[in-house]
Amino acid sequence: MTKGSDNTGLLRLGVLISGSGRTLMNIHSLAAAGRLPAEVAVVIASRRCKGEDLARGAGLKVELVPYRKIGDPQMYSERISAALDDAAVELVVLAGFLSMWHIPPRYLGRVINIHPALLPNFGGHGMYGHFVHEAVLAAGCKVSGCTVHFVTNQYDRGPIIVQRTVPVLEGDTPDTLAARVFQEELQAMPEAIRLFAAGRLTIDGNVVRVRPA
Q1: Is 115 in the active site?
Q2: What top-level class would CATH report for the domain 113-213?
Q3: How many whole angstroms separate alpha carbon 91 and alpha carbon 72?
């Protein structure tokens, strides 16, 4: 893989958001501080949201591609892909993106997502945000965490890159568990980006092999 089509040597990221933008801003802050070998080439928002405002405030290129306004799933997916192509994106990061993007073949193996549970448990359609943490608590799990995985066109079924764990404590609520998991998300996503940027990831069926540094 050749990094940095703009000759900076940095991996060009396209970050897709629908909400608060916390994961996006964590990535951008680390990149700006020289702690991540990447740059945010474009942010694509599926709706007006806080993350869009934060991205614009940080001087990032933002494309608003509202699903509700476009309506047609195929046309919507083509708009997303075209915006990524225009920005010469090398890796796509789904950071709380809640719309359906049908990933074209040219982007398979180049899209990653972070999920607030230990996949393959507590994944699939409708499992996002507090719904995940509520399900973890209802199941009586003693451990939870987060998963960064390659994205396919099946919800939460792609090969796992990184997982980090947290204990589930007595008296936890969805909010307290979510806060603890999110602290691990702040570590897991940059770790996965670094591995991809270094060319250390190989997909073998549904298993990710990580080459030693």
Answers
A1: yes
A2: alpha beta
A3: 25
